[in-house]
Design a protein that fits this description.
The protein is an all-alpha fold. Helices cover 73% and strands 0% of the residues. It has five helices and no strands. Helix 4 runs antiparallel to helix 5. The termini are far apart.
Length: 143
């Protein structure tokens, strides 16, 4: 048996195995990166959900300055409507927070949000409507 030939075969086999291992590792890393990015991406609400969200936001802005009994009634009815109609629960949670802030503002509670709180919430809610073509405007409450 020729030892030079055997040594060359071993080197070639190691090179092929190393190349295959590197390709498999690269595919796994790319797949994990794709999964991580997709996993952390915000849910995308439908245009209907985003339009409902904007309508609720507009009503919340108006109700936040009104009488408390009207605000409480609106808060309950709107919450029921949002839970029944809005399919994107993540967007719904953001809008629910704004609804609660509108009620707290109408009640002149100490838990009213700052303009920065509202701006931060708007950014989060808009992230769910990025693909819908609907731009949410979320003004500070009580003004």
């Amino acid at each position: 048996m020729n030892t030079t030939s055997t040594t060359q075969n071993r080197k070639r086999n190691r090179l092929v195995i190393g190349a295959v291992t590197a390709v498999i590792a690269a595919v796994l890393v790319a797949g994990a990166g794709y999964w991580w990015q997709d996993h952390n991406k915000l849910s995308q609400a439908s245009a209907e959900d985003c339009e409902l969200a904007q309508r609720i936001i507009t009503e919340a802005e108006q109700i936040s300055t009104g009488p408390v009994p009207d605000a409480e009634k609106w808060w309950k009815e709107t919450g029921d409507e949002r839970r029944a109609q809005m399919k994107d629960g993540y967007l719904g949670a953001k809008i629910s927070q704004y609804e609660g802030w509108a009620l707290a503002t109408a009640k002149k509670s100490s838990e009213t949000p700052s303009a920065q709180d509202v701006k931060n919430l708007r950014g989060k809610a808009q992230g769910h409507c990025a693909d819908s073509g609907v731009t949410l405007s979320m003004p500070p409450l009580g003004s």
